[in-house]
Protein backbone atom coordinates (compact mmCIF):
# COMPACT_ATOMS: atom_id res chain seq x y z
CA UNK A 1 0.00 0.00 0.00
CA UNK A 2 2.88 2.39 0.71
CA UNK A 3 3.87 2.25 -2.97
CA UNK A 4 0.31 2.98 -4.07
CA UNK A 5 0.23 5.99 -1.73
CA UNK A 6 3.60 7.13 -3.09
CA UNK A 7 2.33 6.77 -6.67
CA UNK A 8 -0.68 8.95 -5.84
CA UNK A 9 1.52 11.57 -4.18
CA UNK A 10 3.71 11.50 -7.29
CA UNK A 11 0.66 12.02 -9.53
CA UNK A 12 -0.66 14.73 -7.21
CA UNK A 13 2.59 16.64 -7.49
CA UNK A 14 2.43 16.32 -11.28
CA UNK A 15 -0.95 18.05 -11.24
CA UNK A 16 0.24 20.61 -8.67
CA UNK A 17 3.25 21.70 -10.68
CA UNK A 18 1.50 21.45 -14.02
CA UNK A 19 -0.95 23.97 -12.55
CA UNK A 20 2.00 26.19 -11.65
CA UNK A 21 4.05 25.81 -14.81
CA UNK A 22 1.31 26.01 -17.43
CA UNK A 23 1.11 29.75 -16.82
CA UNK A 24 4.74 30.03 -17.97
CA UNK A 25 4.18 27.83 -21.01
CA UNK A 26 1.20 29.99 -21.95
CA UNK A 27 3.10 33.22 -21.22
CA UNK A 28 3.43 34.40 -24.82
CA UNK A 29 -0.27 34.05 -25.82
CA UNK A 30 -1.51 35.40 -22.48
CA UNK A 31 0.82 38.41 -22.58
CA UNK A 32 -0.25 39.07 -26.16
CA UNK A 33 -3.99 38.69 -25.44
CA UNK A 34 -3.94 41.04 -22.43
CA UNK A 35 -1.10 43.26 -23.73
CA UNK A 36 1.08 42.72 -20.63
CA UNK A 37 4.58 44.11 -20.04
CA UNK A 38 7.42 42.08 -18.48
CA UNK A 39 6.78 43.79 -15.13
CA UNK A 40 3.09 42.92 -15.28
CA UNK A 41 3.93 39.34 -16.18
CA UNK A 42 6.31 39.22 -13.21
CA UNK A 43 3.36 40.32 -11.07
CA UNK A 44 1.24 37.48 -12.47
CA UNK A 45 3.97 34.99 -11.60
CA UNK A 46 4.45 36.49 -8.15
CA UNK A 47 0.73 36.64 -7.27
CA UNK A 48 0.55 32.87 -7.02
CA UNK A 49 2.73 33.07 -3.90
CA UNK A 50 1.10 35.99 -2.08
CA UNK A 51 -0.95 33.72 0.21
CA UNK A 52 1.01 30.53 -0.47
CA UNK A 53 3.34 30.71 2.61
CA UNK A 54 0.52 31.50 5.06
CA UNK A 55 -1.98 28.94 3.79
CA UNK A 56 0.82 26.38 3.53
CA UNK A 57 1.41 26.58 7.29
CA UNK A 58 -2.29 26.76 8.22
CA UNK A 59 -3.29 23.92 5.93
CA UNK A 60 -0.44 21.65 7.03
CA UNK A 61 -1.15 22.31 10.71
CA UNK A 62 -4.78 21.40 10.07
CA UNK A 63 -3.64 18.22 8.33
CA UNK A 64 -1.90 17.17 11.56
CA UNK A 65 -5.34 17.32 13.18
CA UNK A 66 -7.74 15.89 10.58
CA UNK A 67 -5.33 13.64 8.68
CA UNK A 68 -3.18 14.13 5.60
CA UNK A 69 -5.36 12.06 3.26
CA UNK A 70 -8.51 14.05 3.98
CA UNK A 71 -6.73 17.38 3.66
CA UNK A 72 -5.05 16.43 0.38
CA UNK A 73 -8.41 15.40 -1.06
CA UNK A 74 -10.04 18.71 -0.06
CA UNK A 75 -7.21 20.67 -1.64
CA UNK A 76 -7.42 18.74 -4.90
CA UNK A 77 -11.18 19.29 -5.12
CA UNK A 78 -10.66 23.03 -4.74
CA UNK A 79 -8.04 23.07 -7.51
CA UNK A 80 -10.57 21.49 -9.87
CA UNK A 81 -13.07 24.28 -9.23
CA UNK A 82 -10.46 26.99 -9.76
CA UNK A 83 -9.07 25.48 -12.95
CA UNK A 84 -12.51 25.21 -14.50
CA UNK A 85 -13.04 28.82 -13.45
CA UNK A 86 -10.23 29.88 -15.81
CA UNK A 87 -12.78 29.70 -18.63
CA UNK A 88 -14.23 32.95 -17.25
CA UNK A 89 -11.00 35.01 -17.13
CA UNK A 90 -11.42 38.19 -19.14
CA UNK A 91 -8.54 40.45 -18.11
CA UNK A 92 -5.40 41.15 -16.11
CA UNK A 93 -7.16 41.74 -12.77
CA UNK A 94 -9.19 38.51 -12.91
CA UNK A 95 -6.03 36.62 -13.93
CA UNK A 96 -4.29 37.93 -10.79
CA UNK A 97 -7.24 36.92 -8.57
CA UNK A 98 -7.25 33.42 -10.06
CA UNK A 99 -3.50 33.01 -9.45
CA UNK A 100 -3.78 34.25 -5.86
CA UNK A 101 -6.57 31.77 -5.05
CA UNK A 102 -4.86 28.86 -6.80
CA UNK A 103 -1.64 29.53 -4.88
CA UNK A 104 -3.55 29.79 -1.61
CA UNK A 105 -5.08 26.34 -2.02
CA UNK A 106 -2.01 24.68 -3.52
CA UNK A 107 0.31 25.97 -0.79
CA UNK A 108 -0.28 23.13 1.71
CA UNK A 109 0.01 20.27 -0.79
CA UNK A 110 3.79 19.85 -0.93
CA UNK A 111 4.49 19.89 2.85
CA UNK A 112 1.57 17.57 3.56
CA UNK A 113 2.76 15.20 0.83
CA UNK A 114 6.29 15.08 2.28
CA UNK A 115 4.90 14.39 5.75
CA UNK A 116 2.50 11.74 4.41
CA UNK A 117 5.38 9.96 2.63
CA UNK A 118 7.47 10.27 5.79
CA UNK A 119 4.77 8.43 7.77
CA UNK A 120 4.53 5.61 5.24
CA UNK A 121 8.25 4.89 4.76
CA UNK A 122 11.08 3.83 7.12
CA UNK A 123 14.11 6.15 7.63
CA UNK A 124 16.31 4.24 5.16
CA UNK A 125 13.84 4.94 2.32
CA UNK A 126 12.61 8.44 3.19
CA UNK A 127 15.10 10.30 1.04
CA UNK A 128 14.14 8.18 -1.94
CA UNK A 129 10.41 8.47 -1.19
CA UNK A 130 10.59 12.25 -0.99
CA UNK A 131 12.69 12.38 -4.16
CA UNK A 132 9.89 10.51 -5.95
CA UNK A 133 7.40 13.08 -4.64
CA UNK A 134 9.69 15.90 -5.80
CA UNK A 135 10.12 14.21 -9.19
CA UNK A 136 6.36 14.48 -9.62
CA UNK A 137 6.86 18.24 -9.35
CA UNK A 138 9.50 18.13 -12.08
CA UNK A 139 7.35 15.95 -14.35
CA UNK A 140 4.41 18.33 -13.86
CA UNK A 141 6.50 21.44 -14.38
CA UNK A 142 8.73 20.28 -17.23
CA UNK A 143 8.40 16.74 -18.60
CA UNK A 144 4.77 17.16 -19.62
CA UNK A 145 5.62 20.54 -21.16
CA UNK A 146 5.28 19.32 -24.80
CA UNK A 147 1.82 17.94 -24.01
CA UNK A 148 0.76 21.16 -22.29
CA UNK A 149 2.16 23.25 -25.15
CA UNK A 150 0.20 21.09 -27.60
CA UNK A 151 -3.00 21.55 -25.57
CA UNK A 152 -2.44 25.30 -25.44
CA UNK A 153 -1.81 25.43 -29.19
CA UNK A 154 -4.75 23.24 -30.18
CA UNK A 155 -7.40 24.12 -27.60
CA UNK A 156 -6.25 27.50 -26.31
CA UNK A 157 -4.78 28.23 -22.90
CA UNK A 158 -8.13 28.39 -21.06
CA UNK A 159 -9.21 24.87 -22.06
CA UNK A 160 -5.72 23.53 -21.35
CA UNK A 161 -6.12 24.81 -17.78
CA UNK A 162 -9.59 23.24 -17.53
CA UNK A 163 -8.20 19.82 -18.49
CA UNK A 164 -5.91 20.02 -15.46
CA UNK A 165 -9.05 20.65 -13.40
CA UNK A 166 -10.49 17.37 -14.69
CA UNK A 167 -7.27 15.59 -13.69
CA UNK A 168 -7.69 16.98 -10.16
CA UNK A 169 -11.17 15.45 -9.94
CA UNK A 170 -9.84 12.03 -10.95
CA UNK A 171 -7.10 12.21 -8.30
CA UNK A 172 -9.64 13.19 -5.63
CA UNK A 173 -11.60 10.02 -6.37
CA UNK A 174 -8.52 7.77 -6.32
CA UNK A 175 -7.18 9.02 -2.96
CA UNK A 176 -10.46 7.97 -1.31
CA UNK A 177 -9.48 4.29 -1.74
CA UNK A 178 -6.32 4.56 0.40
CA UNK A 179 -6.03 4.42 4.22
CA UNK A 180 -4.89 7.42 6.23
CA UNK A 181 -1.74 5.73 7.57
CA UNK A 182 -0.02 2.33 7.86
CA UNK A 183 -1.38 0.21 10.71
CA UNK A 184 1.88 0.28 12.65
CA UNK A 185 1.81 4.11 12.65
CA UNK A 186 -1.75 4.57 13.93
CA UNK A 187 -0.74 4.56 17.59
CA UNK A 188 1.96 7.16 17.01
CA UNK A 189 -0.44 9.33 15.07
CA UNK A 190 -3.00 9.34 17.88
CA UNK A 191 -0.30 10.28 20.38
CA UNK A 192 0.83 13.12 18.14
CA UNK A 193 -2.71 14.47 17.95
CA UNK A 194 -3.00 14.55 21.73
CA UNK A 195 0.21 16.55 21.95
CA UNK A 196 -0.91 19.23 19.51
CA UNK A 197 -2.62 21.33 22.18
CA UNK A 198 0.43 21.14 24.48
CA UNK A 199 2.94 22.70 22.11
CA UNK A 200 5.33 25.01 23.93
CA UNK A 201 5.24 27.98 21.55
CA UNK A 202 8.33 29.68 22.98
CA UNK A 203 10.42 26.52 22.70
CA UNK A 204 9.00 25.90 19.24
CA UNK A 205 10.09 29.34 18.03
CA UNK A 206 13.50 28.74 19.58
CA UNK A 207 13.77 25.55 17.55
CA UNK A 208 12.86 27.39 14.36
CA UNK A 209 15.64 29.91 15.00
CA UNK A 210 18.25 27.20 15.62
CA UNK A 211 21.05 26.95 13.02
CA UNK A 212 19.80 23.61 11.70
CA UNK A 213 16.25 24.87 11.05
CA UNK A 214 17.29 28.36 9.95
CA UNK A 215 19.96 27.44 7.43
CA UNK A 216 17.98 24.51 6.03
CA UNK A 217 15.15 26.97 5.40
CA UNK A 218 17.50 29.51 3.79
CA UNK A 219 18.99 26.83 1.53
CA UNK A 220 15.48 25.78 0.53
CA UNK A 221 14.57 29.45 -0.01
CA UNK A 222 17.52 30.07 -2.31
CA UNK A 223 16.75 26.99 -4.41
CA UNK A 224 13.10 27.95 -4.65
CA UNK A 225 14.08 31.21 -6.34
CA UNK A 226 15.37 28.95 -9.11
CA UNK A 227 12.28 26.70 -8.91
CA UNK A 228 10.01 29.66 -9.56
CA UNK A 229 12.30 31.09 -12.25
CA UNK A 230 12.10 27.78 -14.13
CA UNK A 231 8.31 27.78 -13.87
CA UNK A 232 7.70 31.41 -14.83
CA UNK A 233 10.71 32.52 -16.86
CA UNK A 234 12.55 29.53 -18.38
CA UNK A 235 10.15 29.17 -21.34
CA UNK A 236 10.45 32.90 -22.08
CA UNK A 237 14.27 32.73 -21.70
CA UNK A 238 14.57 29.84 -24.16
CA UNK A 239 12.37 31.58 -26.74
CA UNK A 240 13.56 35.18 -26.37
CA UNK A 241 17.27 34.71 -25.54
CA UNK A 242 18.26 31.26 -26.84
CA UNK A 243 15.97 31.79 -29.87
CA UNK A 244 14.09 28.49 -29.77
CA UNK A 245 10.70 27.98 -31.36
CA UNK A 246 7.74 27.13 -29.11
CA UNK A 247 8.01 23.44 -30.06
CA UNK A 248 11.77 23.36 -29.44
CA UNK A 249 11.22 25.12 -26.13
CA UNK A 250 8.67 22.51 -25.08
CA UNK A 251 11.05 19.63 -25.80
CA UNK A 252 13.98 21.45 -24.17
CA UNK A 253 11.96 22.03 -20.99
CA UNK A 254 10.92 18.35 -20.99
CA UNK A 255 14.50 17.17 -21.53
CA UNK A 256 15.80 19.34 -18.69
CA UNK A 257 13.08 17.92 -16.46
CA UNK A 258 13.77 14.27 -17.31
CA UNK A 259 17.53 14.47 -16.83
CA UNK A 260 17.28 16.51 -13.63
CA UNK A 261 14.90 13.95 -12.09
CA UNK A 262 17.53 11.26 -12.58
CA UNK A 263 20.17 13.49 -11.01
CA UNK A 264 18.37 14.36 -7.77
CA UNK A 265 16.89 10.87 -7.33
CA UNK A 266 20.45 9.50 -7.63
CA UNK A 267 21.61 12.01 -5.01
CA UNK A 268 18.76 10.99 -2.70
CA UNK A 269 19.63 7.29 -3.09
CA UNK A 270 23.27 8.04 -2.29
CA UNK A 271 22.15 9.99 0.78
CA UNK A 272 19.87 7.14 1.94
CA UNK A 273 22.62 4.55 1.50
CA UNK A 274 25.13 6.64 3.41
CA UNK A 275 22.60 7.16 6.19
CA UNK A 276 21.83 3.44 6.35
CA UNK A 277 25.55 2.75 6.60
CA UNK A 278 26.67 5.35 9.15
CA UNK A 279 23.50 6.90 10.68
CA UNK A 280 25.31 10.25 10.45
CA UNK A 281 23.06 13.14 9.40
CA UNK A 282 25.92 15.55 8.72
CA UNK A 283 27.70 13.22 6.30
CA UNK A 284 24.73 11.53 4.65
CA UNK A 285 22.29 14.44 4.45
CA UNK A 286 23.96 17.82 4.95
CA UNK A 287 27.25 17.36 3.09
CA UNK A 288 25.67 15.47 0.19
CA UNK A 289 23.05 18.20 -0.32
CA UNK A 290 25.37 21.14 0.36
CA UNK A 291 28.04 20.07 -2.12
CA UNK A 292 25.40 19.21 -4.73
CA UNK A 293 23.89 22.69 -4.44
CA UNK A 294 27.30 24.34 -4.81
CA UNK A 295 28.02 22.37 -7.99
CA UNK A 296 24.55 23.18 -9.35
CA UNK A 297 25.02 26.90 -8.73
CA UNK A 298 28.29 26.88 -10.66
CA UNK A 299 26.64 25.02 -13.56
CA UNK A 300 23.92 27.67 -13.62
CA UNK A 301 26.42 30.54 -13.70
CA UNK A 302 28.34 28.86 -16.54
CA UNK A 303 25.47 29.71 -18.93
CA UNK A 304 26.60 33.33 -18.76
CA UNK A 305 29.87 32.35 -20.44
CA UNK A 306 28.64 29.66 -22.84
CA UNK A 307 25.27 30.53 -24.38
CA UNK A 308 25.24 27.82 -27.01
CA UNK A 309 21.78 26.26 -26.96
CA UNK A 310 23.12 22.74 -26.33
CA UNK A 311 25.28 23.84 -23.40
CA UNK A 312 22.46 25.89 -21.90
CA UNK A 313 20.27 22.77 -21.87
CA UNK A 314 23.07 20.63 -20.36
CA UNK A 315 23.89 23.28 -17.74
CA UNK A 316 20.23 23.69 -16.79
CA UNK A 317 19.90 19.90 -16.43
CA UNK A 318 22.82 19.88 -13.99
CA UNK A 319 21.78 23.06 -12.22
CA UNK A 320 18.24 21.85 -11.65
CA UNK A 321 19.17 18.29 -10.70
CA UNK A 322 21.94 19.28 -8.29
CA UNK A 323 20.31 22.26 -6.58
CA UNK A 324 17.00 20.41 -6.20
CA UNK A 325 18.71 17.95 -3.84
CA UNK A 326 17.53 20.15 -0.95
CA UNK A 327 13.87 19.64 -1.87
CA UNK A 328 13.59 15.92 -0.90
CA UNK A 329 16.26 15.95 1.83
CA UNK A 330 15.34 19.27 3.47
CA UNK A 331 11.98 17.96 4.78
CA UNK A 332 13.65 14.88 6.31
CA UNK A 333 16.03 17.19 8.19
CA UNK A 334 13.34 19.46 9.67
CA UNK A 335 11.01 16.56 10.46
CA UNK A 336 13.88 14.96 12.37
CA UNK A 337 14.02 18.09 14.54
CA UNK A 338 10.38 17.57 15.58
CA UNK A 339 9.01 14.20 14.37
CA UNK A 340 5.53 14.48 15.94
CA UNK A 341 4.64 17.52 13.86
CA UNK A 342 5.89 16.56 10.44
CA UNK A 343 3.30 18.47 8.41
CA UNK A 344 3.80 21.65 10.43
CA UNK A 345 7.60 21.50 10.20
CA UNK A 346 7.62 20.85 6.46
CA UNK A 347 5.03 23.56 5.89
CA UNK A 348 7.22 26.14 7.62
CA UNK A 349 10.16 25.00 5.50
CA UNK A 350 8.28 25.10 2.20
CA UNK A 351 6.24 28.20 2.99
CA UNK A 352 9.31 30.13 4.10
CA UNK A 353 11.05 28.98 0.96
CA UNK A 354 8.06 29.94 -1.14
CA UNK A 355 8.45 33.55 -0.07
CA UNK A 356 10.93 33.39 -2.94
CA UNK A 357 7.91 32.90 -5.15
CA UNK A 358 6.66 36.34 -4.17
CA UNK A 359 10.01 38.05 -4.64
CA UNK A 360 11.57 36.12 -7.53
CA UNK A 361 9.23 36.73 -10.50
CA UNK A 362 8.82 40.44 -9.81
CA UNK A 363 12.57 40.88 -9.24
CA UNK A 364 13.38 39.05 -12.47
CA UNK A 365 10.90 41.17 -14.43
CA UNK A 366 12.41 44.32 -12.90
CA UNK A 367 15.97 43.20 -13.74
CA UNK A 368 15.01 42.41 -17.34
CA UNK A 369 13.34 45.78 -17.83
CA UNK A 370 16.36 47.58 -16.30
CA UNK A 371 18.45 46.14 -19.13
CA UNK A 372 16.25 47.98 -21.63
CA UNK A 373 16.29 46.51 -25.11
CA UNK A 374 19.07 44.07 -24.14
CA UNK A 375 16.78 41.26 -22.97
CA UNK A 376 19.63 38.74 -22.94
CA UNK A 377 21.61 40.88 -20.49
CA UNK A 378 18.62 41.12 -18.17
CA UNK A 379 18.12 37.35 -18.12
CA UNK A 380 21.86 36.76 -17.59
CA UNK A 381 21.87 39.12 -14.62
CA UNK A 382 18.93 37.26 -13.09
CA UNK A 383 20.76 33.93 -13.53
CA UNK A 384 23.93 35.34 -11.92
CA UNK A 385 21.88 36.59 -8.98
CA UNK A 386 20.25 33.18 -8.45
CA UNK A 387 23.53 31.30 -8.74
CA UNK A 388 25.25 33.57 -6.22
CA UNK A 389 22.41 33.26 -3.68
CA UNK A 390 22.29 29.45 -3.96
CA UNK A 391 26.08 29.19 -3.65
CA UNK A 392 26.13 31.39 -0.52
CA UNK A 393 23.36 29.56 1.32
CA UNK A 394 24.68 26.13 0.28
CA UNK A 395 27.96 27.00 1.99
CA UNK A 396 26.20 28.25 5.14
CA UNK A 397 23.97 25.15 5.13
CA UNK A 398 27.02 22.86 4.97
CA UNK A 399 28.73 24.66 7.83
CA UNK A 400 25.93 25.24 10.33
CA UNK A 401 23.26 22.54 9.90
CA UNK A 402 23.70 19.75 12.46
CA UNK A 403 20.50 17.65 12.56
CA UNK A 404 21.98 15.16 15.04
CA UNK A 405 21.78 17.89 17.70
CA UNK A 406 18.17 18.84 18.28
CA UNK A 407 15.90 20.39 20.86
CA UNK A 408 12.47 18.97 21.67
CA UNK A 409 10.02 21.87 21.95
CA UNK A 410 7.38 19.60 23.45
CA UNK A 411 9.47 19.33 26.57
CA UNK A 412 9.29 22.10 29.18
UniProtKB/TrEMBL annotation:
Record's bilayer topology term: Multi-pass membrane protein
Gene3D superfamilies: MFS general substrate transporter like domains (1.20.1250.20)
GO molecular function (one): transmembrane transporter activity
Annotated TM spans: 42-62, 74-101, 128-152, 159-177, 218-239, 251-271, 291-314, 321-339, 351-371, 383-401
GO CC annotations on file: plasma membrane
Domain Major facilitator superfamily (MFS) profile: 5-406
InterPro entries linked to this entry: MFS (IPR011701), MFS_dom (IPR020846), MFS_Na/Anion_cotransporter (IPR050382), MFS_trans_sf (IPR036259), Tet-R_TetA/multi-R_MdtG-like (IPR001958)
Pfam family, one: MFS_1
Subcellular localization: Cell membrane
Protein name (Swiss-Prot/TrEMBL): MFS transporter
Organism for this UniProt entry: Peribacillus cavernae
Lineage of producing organism: Bacteria, Bacillati, Bacillota, Bacilli, Bacillales
Amino acid sequence: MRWIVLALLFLGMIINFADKSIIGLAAVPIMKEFNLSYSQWGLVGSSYYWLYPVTGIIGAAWADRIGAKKMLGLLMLTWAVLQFGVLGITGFFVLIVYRVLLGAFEGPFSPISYSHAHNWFPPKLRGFANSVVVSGATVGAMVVAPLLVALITILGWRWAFAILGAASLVWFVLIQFTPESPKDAEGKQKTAKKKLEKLNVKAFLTLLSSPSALFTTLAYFSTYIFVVWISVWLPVYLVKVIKMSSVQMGYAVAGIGIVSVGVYIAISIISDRLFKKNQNWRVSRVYVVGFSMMAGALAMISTLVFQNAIWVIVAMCLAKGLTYAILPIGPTIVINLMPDRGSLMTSILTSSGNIAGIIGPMLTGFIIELAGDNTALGFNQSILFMGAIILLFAILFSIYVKPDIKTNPEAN
